[in-house]
Amino acid sequence: MNAGEETGSGPPEIDWTKAGELRDDVGGEAFREVVDLFLVEVEEALEALMHGPGLEAQLHFLKGAALNLGFTEFAALCQQGETLAGAGRARDVRLHPLRAAYGRARDHFLAEWEWRLAA
User: Fold this and answer.
1) pLDDT tens for the chain, residues 1 to 119
2) What span, in angstroms and rounded, lies between the C-alpha atoms of 85 and 34?
3) Which ranges of 1-94 does DSSP label H, i.e. alpha helix?
4) Residue 104: closest CA among 4, 18, 13, 34
């Protein structure tokens, strides 16, 4: 699979255990703030994402942010793109499907996180 390719028709992979650990570490109310900040920062980064010399660093940032909240499938796509960009193949990273993968993960997370992570 190339970076940014869609991985299937099922719901995106979310590591709910990882998300729960973060919620436990910061507390329930602060977790909501972390989620809100994550969404803003990742969406801004995705909007600015473009091919070029900074792509590897941009994808590294996105991967780290995604892993903190358990967006494992999206993080894996970012890792693949980061590897390609680091090898001088930034043009091979498909940005639109990468953005779409994030959108699916975000929607799935927002639809389920409150009941899945109920304390």
Assistant:
1) 444 444 455 667 899 999 999 999 999 889 999 999 999 999 999 988 888 789 999 999 999 999 999 999 999 999 999 999 999 999 999 999 899 999 999 999 999 998 988 76
2) 29
3) 16-26, 28-48, 55-69, 72-86
4) 13
Three-class SS of residue 99?
helix
Contact 98, 78 (CB under 8 A): yes
Domains parsed from the chain with CATH numbers:
16-116 (1.20.120)
Separation in Å, CA 58 to CA 6, 9, 13, 71, 94: 20, 27, 21, 16, 14
- pTM of the predicted protein model: 0.85
